[in-house]
Amino acid sequence: MTISLAIDTSTSKTIVGIIENGVVLFEKAHEGATDHGRALSELVADALKVAKPPHQVVVGMGPGPFTGLRVGIAFAQSFALARQIPVIGICSLDAIAIDKDQYTVAIDARRKEIYWASYQDGIRVAGPSVNKPAEVANFIIDVFPDMQKLVSLAASQSITEPMYLRRPDAVPTAERP
């Protein structure tokens, strides 16, 4: 029996779930792209009330905005380290559940751009990438990572670095124009 704490902060939503052997015991989201820090600790506290302590933490590694990803990943790593359990990173776009054979999913990347990836039979065949919406054909947006799918991907993925697809906004003084 494996109990997983699932966390994703790659979108405007903070999403937390407790999944035990493929069964969702808890899944809740909080809307607010700048509120991940506060919302995450509250959602995890609520999640831990419904299940035994987790055996692993599964976290969305992006792509997503820098600050949102850092909040979720740092929390997941700290939580796992304190409990001496593993952390497994998953591409957040891969965890978006779409019931089609072929599709492209996207999430808001801000700055009038989207993060996107294309799938064939559930397997990523292109991306993740960041582009203007007009540059990506037939994408599905406003669908968020599913915690059950995020955890199911832990058997086949283990991403160790956040998926930042843009250069940082901050640059050293010597590199400024």
Question: In summary, what is this structure?
Answer:
The chain has helices at 36-48, 66-83, 147-152; strands at residues 3-8, 13-20, 23-31, 56-60, 87-90, 102-110, 113-120, 123-131, 139-140.
Strand percentage lies at 25-35%
Q: What is the domain tally?
A: 1
Rg over CA atoms = 16 Å
> Briefly, what CATH class?
Alpha Beta
CATH topology: Nucleotidyltransferase, domain 5
Q: Say which CATH homologous superfamily is assigned.
A: ATPase, nucleotide binding domain
The level of helicity is 10-25%
Shape assignment: globular
Q: Helix/strand/pairing class, anyone? A: alpha/beta
Strands ordered across the widest β-sheet: 3-2-1-4-5
Given as residue ranges, the uncertain stretches (5+ residues, pLDDT < 50) are none
Give a count of the beta strands, DSSP E runs of length 2 or more. Answer: 9
The main β sheet shows up as: 5 strands, mixed
- Give me the CATH architecture, please: 2-Layer Sandwich
Organism: Candidatus Planktophila versatilis
Domain Gcp-like: 34-155
Protein name: tRNA N6-adenosine(37)-N6-threonylcarbamoyltransferase complex dimerization subunit TsaB
Which terms summarize this structure?
177 residues, alpha/beta, Nucleotidyltransferase, domain 5, 5-stranded mixed sheet, 4-stranded mixed sheet, 9 strands, 21% helix, 34% strand, globular
